[in-house]
Amino acid sequence: MSTITVPDELRRRLKRLASLLDVPQYKVVEMLLDLFESDLLAAGAREVEPEIARELEEARRLVESQDREWAERSRAVEEAVARGLRPGLFRGRWGVELP
């Protein structure tokens, strides 16, 4: 193990996030690096063909119209992922409630 030097403000942010997530500080750094790497990889990902995207969207609308509860949960999960929530961030923390 080794140490790195970071500005005080960054250190405070790191401590706050670690406290909020109830994980060690090194885990916060690991999670943020994972997110950064996944964003870099996503930037290089190829786009889905428009026809496939239309079909998927149509299937989504059909399922959402038939099952409102599933639609609400699906939106909650998508919003969480958009904010950076990844399943790996919460290993071992079961029982997270969805609205």
Offer a quick outline of the entry.
This protein is mostly helical and 99 residues long. The protein has 2 domains: 7-45; 48-85, no CATH class.
List the main descriptive attributes of the protein structure presented here.
single chain, 99 residues, mainly alpha, 2 domains, 4 helices, elongated
In words, what does this structure look like?
The chain has 99 residues and is mainly α. The protein has two domains: 7-45; 48-85, no CATH class. Helix content is 66%, strand content 0%. The chain has helices at 8-21, 25-43, 50-66, 68-82. Helix 3 (50-66) packs across helix 4 (68-82). The longest helix has 19 residues, at 25-43.
Show the helix and strand layout.
Layout: H1 8-21, H2 25-43, H3 50-66, H4 68-82
Helix pairs in contact: 1-2, 3-4
Mean pLDDT: 80
Unreliable segments (pLDDT under 50, ≥5 consecutive)? none
Report the strand count.
0
Which descriptor suits the 3D outline?
Answer: elongated
How much is the radius of gyration in Å?
Answer: 18 Å
Terminal Cα separation, in Å? 41 Å
